[in-house]
């Protein structure tokens, strides 16, 4: 191929042979255009924008076409007389499939003889400098000549190839994406229709990709999500948004709903929004996990009831809706003796009871009232009522329902509640204060004997403040030595000797003076301060006992023990430590427990008491006959002493049932080999009656008021040196009555 000076490669003759020259082009065989017509054609060709050439066949003597030569061209890049069709390369990358130079020549011949046109696209045209060029070549018959036009499509072909590669990359990414992908139309009247969907999206919605083509995307959306989804589509179609991200629901193949996160972006054509590409990620599992976490944050996992957080939210809403014609009742319910269930039947049985109580409470209330479990066996009900009286009716109804027997593992249990009630009509009421008031009333119900309901009043608040102050005083006394012990002598009736002393705790209050246990022991028990206080009492009592034993080796001390000390399983260790630190003989320490300790004691507490007696100490039942203990407890626990309560002793001065009860207790104790101590002896007549009934040991104001350890040491000396019981009793009784 020969390039003329100034001619561009795109105008060079495609497929020409370098240096090849044709015959004299002025020679016109028969059948060709006459000169005038030829001139007109050439003039028209010269005005065409694309390169054009007129080629004439060259025939041999037999009339066979042997080659073609250019007789006219509208570009200086192609000279007249140039041979045509020596070489060409199609745009096929497979070299084995490329035809030789004769192929183009034969096609020219076919056009010349057959009259059909020839169109070859993207022909590869080599240039002298090695640059790749591509042309589209068209050949048509013009009489006995051929009209050849060509256009350089190199730039377009490169663009097309890039687009093709891009399309292939997109198609590969689209079809193989691990997330669902949708292409939605933004064209008018087609807005939201599915143009394409990949397999991942089709699997998610349970349909074949081809079934989704052309369908409205609204078919996949949850009805509640349609408005938001199509609002975003409308904004993108209007050009006011380039994309969005939303979480919404798509219908699955099984009819359920899958939560998906949709990330959409707009694709423009000719400057206008044309379609949307959506990435659809299945987030159902994440949403379920979030919902589970949210549920756990608001609901009790055991019972399914709301927890404190949800309760407070509902209380705030309920308070805000109050008016003069409605009230809100808040009821705090705590199960009585629930710990017995856990201790005897195990925590699994306890959980069954809690679930049953939650079910009963839920059945008793009506929406939008709220039932919540705060902790352990404590439930709260918030209910709209007409007035305070109606609130108490609710309390009675709840009490009756919760007191019905519960069948658990073959046992029929009655676990009644203590219920505290408060009501309000104030839309400005503080929910925290309402809950506190109900809680105060509930604790008052427990202190009053349990198994009842109590309505809150301001007295309870005053009591609560006082109890808080008392608790603070107890903590201060523990840290700063504010406790002291007094001792009341216990006398052997037979010889009048002081054989033991009961340790009696006193609190030195900075404002209220010396306080007996009645003023603070309930607070100590409720706050668990009773455990460290009890430890201090044992330490101090053993120290005093060691001092007494230095003078009277067989002297004993009696110490009261609380239910909490036993249930905390701290008693045996406390006693062992106190005896070692003081040098006292633990066998001379008598621990007094009430009948309630025996009633509340589970297996672990019984084992704790056994550890105490194994160490040599003895147990006494205090206030025997005033509680619910049965003879079975005397057999189950290692009890050595029973103490007759003062309520029976005070009636011994006059005929009546008290004398018969005391006589029966003494006779029972003698039969069981137990020692008997009578408390609250305040008169000579009571002492005489007890001696006559066979009681062996006594204590009370008639024999001596509580005194310090040093004072009791003097009494010990006097009782041991006196001429017998009568002399001792005669000596101490007047002082005792004073």
UniProtKB/TrEMBL annotation:
> In which domain of life is the source organism classified?
Bacteria
GGDEF domain: from which residue to which, for each copy?
326-458
Q: Where is this region: Disordered?
A: 1-34
Q: Which InterPro entries match?
A: Biofilm_reg_signaling (IPR052155), EAL_dom (IPR001633), EAL_sf (IPR035919), GGDEF_dom (IPR000160), Nucleotide_cyclase (IPR029787), PAC (IPR001610), PAS (IPR000014), PAS-assoc_C (IPR000700)
* Alphabetized SMART domains for the sequence: EAL, GGDEF, PAC, PAS
Which positions fall inside the PAC domain? 244-295
The residue ranges of the EAL domain are 467-720
Q: What are the residue boundaries of the PAS domain, all occurrences included?
A: 166-240
Q: Which PANTHER family does the record match to this protein?
A: BIOFILM ARCHITECTURE MAINTENANCE PROTEIN MBAA, DIGUANYLATE CYCLASE DGCP
Q: What is this protein called in UniProt?
A: Diguanylate cyclase
Q: What is the lineage of its organism?
A: Bacteria, Bacillati, Actinomycetota, Actinomycetes, Micrococcales
């Amino acid at each position: 191929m020969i390039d003329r000076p100034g001619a561009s490669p795109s105008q060079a003759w495609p497929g020409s042979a370098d240096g090849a020259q044709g015959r004299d082009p002025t020679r016109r065989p028969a059948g060709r255009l006459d000169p005038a017509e030829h001139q007109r054609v050439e003039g028209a060709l010269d005005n065409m924008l694309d390169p054009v050439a007129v080629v004439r066949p060259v025939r041999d003597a037999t009339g066979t076409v042997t080659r073609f030569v250019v007789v006219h061209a509208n570009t200086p890049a192609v000279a007249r007389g140039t041979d045509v069709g020596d070489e060409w390369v199609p745009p096929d990358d497979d070299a084995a499939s490329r035809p030789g130079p004769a192929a183009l020549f034969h096609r020219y011949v076919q056009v010349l003889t057959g009259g059909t046109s020839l169109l070859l696209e993207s022909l590869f045209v080599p240039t002298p400098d090695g640059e790749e060029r591509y042309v589209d070549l068209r050949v048509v018959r013009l009489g006995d000549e051929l009209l050849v036009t060509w256009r350089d499509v190199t730039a377009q072909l490169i663009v097309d190839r890039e687009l093709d590669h891009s399309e292939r990359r997109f198609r590969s990414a689209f079809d193989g994406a691990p997330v669902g992908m949708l292409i939605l139309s933004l064209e008018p009247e087609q807005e939201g229709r599915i143009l394409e969907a990949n397999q991942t999206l089709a699997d998610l919605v349970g349909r074949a990709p081809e079934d989704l083509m052309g369908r409205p995307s609204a078919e996949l959306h949850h009805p509640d999500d349609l408005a938001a989804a199509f609002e975003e589509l409308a904004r993108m179609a209007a050009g006011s948004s380039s994309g969005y991200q939303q979480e919404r629901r798509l219908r699955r193949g099984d009819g359920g709903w899958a939560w998906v996160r949709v990330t959409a972006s707009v694709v423009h054509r000719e400057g206008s929004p044309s379609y949307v590409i959506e990435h659809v990620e299945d987030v159902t599992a994440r949403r379920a996990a979030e919902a589970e976490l949210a549920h756990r944050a608001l609901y009790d996992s055991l019972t399914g009831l709301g927890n404190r957080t949800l309760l407070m939210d509902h209380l705030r809403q309920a308070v805000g809706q109050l008016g003069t014609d409605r009230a809100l009742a808040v009821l705090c319910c705590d199960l009585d003796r629930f710990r017995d269930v856990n201790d005897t039947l195990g925590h699994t049985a306890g959980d069954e009871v809690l679930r049953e109580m939650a079910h009963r409470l839920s059945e008793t209330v009506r929406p939008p009232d709220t039932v919540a479990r705060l902790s352990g066996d404590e439930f709260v009900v918030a209910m709209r009522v007409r007035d305070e009286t109606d609130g108490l009716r609710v309390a009675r109804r709840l009490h009756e329902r919760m007191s019905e027997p519960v069948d658990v593992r073959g046992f029929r249990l009655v676990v009644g509640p203590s219920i505290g009630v408060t009501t309000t009509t104030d839309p400005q009421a503080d929910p925290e204060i309402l809950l506190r008031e109900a809680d105060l009333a509930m604790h008052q119900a427990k202190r009053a004997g349990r198994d009842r309901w109590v309505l809150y009043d301001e007295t309870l608040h005053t009591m609560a403040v006082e109890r808080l102050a008392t608790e603070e005083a107890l903590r201060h006394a523990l840290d700063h030595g504010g406790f002291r012990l007094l001792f009341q002598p216990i006398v052997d009736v037979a010889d009048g000797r002081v054989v033991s002393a009961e340790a009696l705790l006193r609190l030195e209050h900075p404002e209220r003076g010396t306080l007996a246990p009645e003023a603070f022991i309930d607070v100590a028990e409720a706050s668990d301060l009773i455990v460290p206080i009890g430890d201090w009492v044992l330490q101090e009592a053993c120290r005093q006992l060691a001092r007494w034993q230095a003078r009277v080796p067989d002297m004993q001390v009696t110490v009261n023990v609380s239910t909490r000390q036993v249930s905390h399983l701290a008693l045996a260790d406390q006693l062992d430590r106190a005896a070692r630190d003081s040098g006292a003989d633990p066998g001379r320490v008598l621990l007094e427990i009430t009948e309630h300790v025996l009633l509340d004691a589970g297996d672990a507490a019984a084992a704790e008491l056994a550890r105490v007696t194994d160490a040599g100490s003895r147990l006494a039942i205090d206030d025997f006959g005033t509680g619910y203990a049965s003879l079975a407890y005397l057999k189950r626990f290692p009890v050595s002493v029973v103490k007759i309560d003062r309520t029976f002793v005070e009636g011994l001065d006059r005929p009546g049932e008290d004398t018969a009860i005391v006589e029966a207790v003494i006779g029972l104790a003698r039969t069981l080999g137990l020692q008997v101590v009578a408390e609250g002896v305040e008169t000579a007549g009571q002492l005489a009656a007890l001696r006559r009934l066979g009681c062996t040991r006594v204590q009370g104001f008639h024999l001596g008021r509580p005194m310090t350890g040093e004072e009791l040491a003097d009494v010990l000396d006097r009782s041991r040196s006196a001429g017998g019981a009568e002399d001792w009793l005669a000596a101490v009784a007047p002082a005792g009555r004073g």
